[in-house]
Design a protein that fits this description.
Blueprint: H1 10-26, H2 31-37, H3 43-57, H4 62-71, H5 82-94
Length: 97
Amino acid sequence: MIRIANQDNTDIADEIRIIGYFLLELNEVPKNDIKRLNEFEQKNMYDGAIDGVISAKFNLPEPIKKLLRWMLDRDPRKRPSRSDILANLAIIRKQGV
């Protein structure tokens, strides 16, 4: 994944995570399971749960899974910006994924 710019705006970062959660919901992850993800206080437990959900529920190419995982990072400063998402989607599209 490539990063275009630093993500300083936590409001946008929160919106990006919400979009990631919405994508989980569209892929039949129950809302209650998504809600429980936010209850994990330890980062490693949250990361493990997210990775497990993405691995189990998504029959998608690996670059798309990685982008979704990046969007759902617990740390808002580490989430992609809108530019990052668009740039990575363009690369994924060019790869024919």
